[in-house]
Amino acid sequence: MSKNKTERARLSVSRRQRSTPFTPRIETLGVSDYSIVNHTILPKGFGRSVEEDYWHLREHVQMWDVSCQRQVEIKGPDAALLLQRMTPRDLRDVQPGQCMYAPIIDEHAGMLNDPVILILDYDHFWLSIADSDLLLWTKGLAVAYGLNVEIDEPDVSPLAVQGPRADDLVAKVFGDAVRSIRFFKFEKLDFDGHELVVARTGYSRQGGFEIYLNDSSLGLALWDALWDAGENLNVAPGSPNLIERVEGGLLSYGNEMTRKNNPIECGLGHFCSYASELDYIGKEALSRIHLQGPQRIIRGVRFDGDKTPACANTWKLTVDDEFAGQITTAIWSPRFNQNVALGMLEQAYWNPGQVVNVHCADGSVRDGFVTELPMQP
Amino acid sequence: MSKNKTERARLSVSRRQRSTPFTPRIETLGVSDYSIVNHTILPKGFGRSVEEDYWHLREHVQMWDVSCQRQVEIKGPDAALLLQRMTPRDLRDVQPGQCMYAPIIDEHAGMLNDPVILILDYDHFWLSIADSDLLLWTKGLAVAYGLNVEIDEPDVSPLAVQGPRADDLVAKVFGDAVRSIRFFKFEKLDFDGHELVVARTGYSRQGGFEIYLNDSSLGLALWDALWDAGENLNVAPGSPNLIERVEGGLLSYGNEMTRKNNPIECGLGHFCSYASELDYIGKEALSRIHLQGPQRIIRGVRFDGDKTPACANTWKLTVDDEFAGQITTAIWSPRFNQNVALGMLEQAYWNPGQVVNVHCADGSVRDGFVTELPMQP
């Protein structure tokens, strides 16, 4: 995976790698790079550089086809009980209209996913998931526990509008009501006679919304309405931007963490409760880690040298030839004029400012240092 | 997804889309097309056409990096009990050394995966899986049932050697013992002091083996040993070949069937048992379908006209303007000099010889007819 851009392999086409309700527009707009998330294509580039997309995202507004954030729908009398068993986050006081970022863990406290949970009602939830088939874990638990719930993947496809002009763009389609939606809250708003969930969420630090299209047949109408509304706002097609998310410390399941990592290592300890009233899978294992403290934690790393190659595998970090951790994602930051990365730092080396050596896949060893997240210039 | 080959988007690079122990060799050999299966890259082409690869596979021998066929390992006192709960296939008489193709179904008898199960011992199994996180279903069941099992994804990466010269090639590395391995059986054979599972299985109808590398650090040594052994056998890098698998009626989970399909529809009814001693998830739902008979079934379809575009979505089939089913995979067959396809045919139209209209994504409507599987020339 060390090839340069012009040599990279193309993605083969099949039904298994699912298209989205927005795919025809994405293709017309010249999509050049795809990723696969949840068996669904995620547009990752449109022929411009990641740096150009980065500056545009910070200054204007972009539309992202994030339909790959599939929903695991849980509803019914036992829905709240099942959901609380799946996460260490205390969900006892949630209210409809809230979005809750929540680690989902297994019996060893290993991360299985890190969805945003949409509280549609007290007995009705959507888990807007990262890249693992959380549907199967959820269904397996429900079947074996014998719970009274319905679990499915509904016809719901999120479309993100991100960037400083997102309010102006989305207000043109959904009305000024969107301006008063608070962070991690949602409203159900009308589009062409259909009620859509509009949430102030998104996988960037530039602000904006995710609109949960709930009828694939309206995909092109929704895309076109938003696109037309963006005409004077310099709207562009975009995607989760690697530079922006690394600087911002936004984690990616499968990149920064896997089932081998617990939420405390992932810096998600503040989402975990050990209240005696809560009964969740992995509580015993997680409580032990909580008491002992983690052995490693996710941090930022900045490092010198030429523009880094893409990180297709973990790269070793060392301090005085001792193992100090691993890089999981790396890219050049034009704002910091330096390479920026996310990685897992061992306890002895995790303090911000710690000097480290970064062993890149191209064989180079670069000088770097540990940073807090989000990174500060 | 209707673009032609030179316009198709490239696959973006990240740790989440996992490399394999064979990736460095695959890249040196000029991989041009990737797919993603189980969060792992699957090489799909090496700059030659699918037709060239097809003829080569039928006449010579190929090495395929199918590490994406990840293993779900189940072991421990309750392993056999759990495994039997997961499948309608009767596993009571299995013996170590057997490979068992088995549908895995949910409580509605919907297909979750269709692995080949390797019986390593009476309490130790590998499920060599298609493209869904069956690990999560398996773990969810085990946790909620409270079973005494260990479940994990081990460091095991299958390498397939397929084609009429596969015996000659593999015998040069593992000895003539491989020639006597029967179909869907495996032996543990020595490679460089390590015992590897060598199974007479694979995702083609041309014969061959799958070698289960159980230590990533040996990946390049194994690849090189096999590659060198193939020097006088016209060995080439390859991949599951779309023409060959469609003609041969080999199904692909996510393409031909999803969770919305039951195993009887998928033509897997002969793998399903309704014996009263068996207790598996979905038995009630499956028994009902078994008694009533399926509403539709997977068949082959051959159709006329120019070379078909790739099938990125389902394509409608009609008879006299009535809905008759859907195509799920389609490609040009140079041997039949016609397009060949797999699809789900409704009951009234599923008889071989039935004439149908195929509504391709390019807007064309082609004349076709239904066939048995595997297809006969």
How much of the sequence lies in strands of chain A comes to 25-35%
Radius of gyration of chain A: 21 Å
Q: Quick check: average pLDDT of chain A?
A: 96
The H/E string of chain A reads EHEEHEEHEEEEEHEEHEEEHEHHEEEEEE
CATH architecture term of the largest domain in chain A: 2-Layer Sandwich
Question: What is the CATH class designation of the largest domain in chain A?
Answer: Alpha Beta
The strand line-up of the biggest sheet of chain A is: 13-14-15-12-4-16
**Main sheet record of chain A:** 6 strands, mixed
The general outline of chain A is globular
SSE topology:
The structure is a homodimer of 377-residue chains.
Chain A: E1 10-11, H1 23-28, E2 33-37, E3 40-45, H2 50-59, E4 62-65, E5 71-75, H3 79-86, E6 99-101, E7 104-105, E8 111-113, E9 116-121, E10 124-128, H4 134-145, E11 150-152, E12 157-162, H5 166-174, E13 186-191, E14 194-199, E15 208-213, H6 219-229, E16 236-238, H7 242-248, H8 283-292, E17 296-303, E18 315-319, E19 322-333, E20 338-346, E21 355-359, E22 365-371
Parallel strand pairs in A: 4-16
Antiparallel strand pairs in A: 2-3, 4-12, 5-10, 5-11, 6-9, 7-8, 9-10, 12-15, 13-14, 14-15, 17-20, 17-22, 18-19, 18-21, 19-20, 21-22
Task: Give a short summary of the structure.
Two copies of one chain form a homodimer. By secondary structure, chain A is of the alpha+beta class. Helix content of chain A is 19%, strand content 31%.
